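Is this the right way to post structure tokens for a design question? Let me know if I should format differently. Anyway, here goes:
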């Protein structure tokens, strides 16, 4: 993690736009940080593009990590923080899995034949990635990608679902929290269910009561709690941040409904803060006192995508 911190700061120091850094800064360099990485989508004269960007949690030293005219989405730091996985159309015109090395900034293409992809999740061992992609029968399903061979296989025990929302593994690799839109019987408006299950697909159960618009579940460092976004106290209007125990108990609303179109949530590496964005603005919240700080806002029509911290 220390290497990533200094490497990102080296990037800011040198002004390089295509690599994460050139090495360790001298002792008198600016105070290091553990950066938040996100995707930044923008309109250009040639259409639109999206880049990966890093920023310190105090809002300083914002720096673009990719700069070519491609769409780079869904950044996700590896379990050891040595790589950033992301989806990009830079190689084939369709979304494929790529890896960026956080020391050198080099980018390596992993898949070549996905017909479409919209989400990815690191498997806890760090040598494979689960990616949600189109299957041969034109439906969407979870696939597992071997990072050494590039081989893509169906993910056993994972239910196909159309919620198109991020899933997240526990840090011990045993459980998965995800969103499902399959239970819609009797509803006149769309909703999702926050669910938890074992890695092999067993033990599937609802984590929260009712069907609402849930987004971006993330695990605490000790795997005892899950934070998420929901509009359950302001249906269809504003999102709030919630925290719940993994057995479904002690559900707490930790912010008032304040996010108009909340997109992503990320737990800090020290477990003390949460980052949240709502399309154009990035916030950081201290969990011990609920203090919320707005770091910055993008200018419309630019948008901010998923966070990883």
């Amino acid at each position: 993690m220390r290497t990533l911190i200094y490497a990102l700061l080296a990037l800011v120091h040198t002004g390089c736009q295509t690599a994460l850094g050139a090495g360790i800064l001298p002792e008198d360099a600016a105070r290091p940080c553990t950066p938040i990485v996100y995707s930044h989508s923008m309109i250009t004269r040639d259409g639109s593009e999206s880049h990966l960007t890093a920023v310190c949690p105090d809002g300083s030293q914002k720096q673009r990590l990719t700069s070519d005219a491609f769409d780079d989405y869904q950044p996700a730091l590896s379990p050891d923080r040595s790589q950033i996985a992301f989806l990009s159309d830079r190689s084939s015109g369709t979304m494929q899995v790529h890896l960026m090395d956080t020391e050198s900034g080099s980018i390596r293409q992993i898949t070549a034949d996905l017909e479409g992809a919209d989400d990815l999740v690191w498997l806890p061992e760090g040598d494979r990635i689960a990616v949600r992609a189109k299957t041969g029968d034109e439906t969407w399903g979870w696939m597992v990608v071997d990072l050494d061979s590039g081989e893509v296989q169906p993910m056993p025990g994972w239910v196909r679902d159309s919620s198109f929302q991020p899933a997240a593994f526990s840090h011990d690799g045993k459980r998965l929290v995800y969103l499902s839109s399959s239970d819609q019987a009797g509803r006149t408006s769309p909703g999702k269910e926050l669910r938890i299950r074992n890695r092999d697909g067993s033990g599937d159960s609802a984590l929260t009561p009712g069907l609402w618009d849930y987004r971006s579940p993330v695990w605490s460092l000790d795997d005892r709690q899950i934070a998420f976004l929901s509009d359950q106290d302001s249906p269809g209007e504003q999102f709030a941040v919630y925290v719940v125990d993994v057995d479904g108990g002690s559900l707490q609303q930790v912010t008032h409904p304040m996010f108009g179109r909340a997109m992503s949530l990320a737990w800090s590496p020290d477990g003390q803060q949460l980052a949240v964005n709502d399309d154009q603005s990035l916030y950081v919240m201290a969990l011990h006192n609920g203090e919320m700080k707005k770091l910055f806002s993008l200018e419309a029509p630019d948008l901010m995508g998923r966070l990883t911290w």
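Format looks fine. Someone answered above. Worth noting: Helices lie at 2-14. DSSP finds one helix and 24 strands in the chain.
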